[in-house]
Here is the input.
Amino acid sequence: MYRLAPALRHYDWGSTTAIPELLGESADGSAVAEAWFGAHAHGSSLVVPHTDEASDGPDGRETWPTLADVVARDPRLLLGEDVVERFGAELPFLLKLVAPVSPLSLQVHPSLEQAAVGWVREERSGVPAAADHRTYRDTNHKPEMLYALTTFEALSGFRTPRRAAEILDGLGTPLITSTIERLRYGHSAQGVRSAFEYVLLGARDRDADVGVAVERIAARLESGTSPSEHADTIALRIAREHPGDRGILASLLLNPVTLRPGEAMFVPAGAVHAYIAGLGVEVMASSDNVVRAAMTSKHRDARALLDIVDVRPAPPIRLAPEHARSGVEVFYAPVEDFELAVLTVDERPVEIDGGGPRIVLAIEGDLELCLGDVVERLPRGAAVFLADGEDPVVRGHGRLVRAGVP
Here is the structure.
């Protein structure tokens, strides 16, 4: 077992309090958008030494090894033969805490093939790996699952053209009118693609229409005539953070999602989405590939997004857990890279099984992991990496999540 310290990401859309409070740390006023628990090259967790092994460095962390370094020393021992044969000598998943208080970018994650092609293209073009205008940071796909710890608002996937037209109807600008016409073109996916592309890239002389549409959205909410109060509220929230952004109108083409605590959603490669607000646990393939088109100050590449987006109208993919045994619920995603289990411990100890490499993160209560004679306290916010073959028992009172490989 290895105790982990997360790699923190201080993006401006993050909460100043949610993640520090869960980790049991003092908030310093800076935004903490994400906490990464994993071994990704662009943000590996640190392995916390035992007290008698602590560094004499100025902040105690300068000489701590990264989880990526530890795994690289003996991947077959730590990951297991099966995982190495399937995924290579690297941890195939990444576990995160994510805490938006303002909308994230409108984005899509690539498939394996798209990521490989995009990465090679940028490498050959000489785009530095860490450049702000780089789109493909690695060659992996990035399907992901979000498990809500609080009420979590998001957008995911396209509405049907009929419903999207109903939402847009009455906003009455030339830009909107042309978008509705495109929604009615051909079969449903063709109409969605045409409308989405037009909203993002078309009629640049009509940018002022976005502000007019926002005023009309606010007016219909105020008058009680909104065809979707949920969609209009999200659009106005985006408008406050990104005034004039085409993503405001694009959001009306998408499905709004509200996850209650304990609910989960899967986002496959190609699915357009944006997180709006809340606190959740994410588990994903170990990748940092994000193709953005709107609602961000980061690098945008709407054309690249349109090349890989899945435009088929479909509802969000909500996942129901399988009750594996008493106190254990498992959310299975339709990918081979990861699964997420939620363990509730009360009167009886619960074994953390599953095989292969796993990361456990305490989200509630005060727990202990017991592996032979080794006992590791696991208060809320603490995380531990478990190597293949390590199946500790957890006891105490609380809940934890366990990310692993199916």
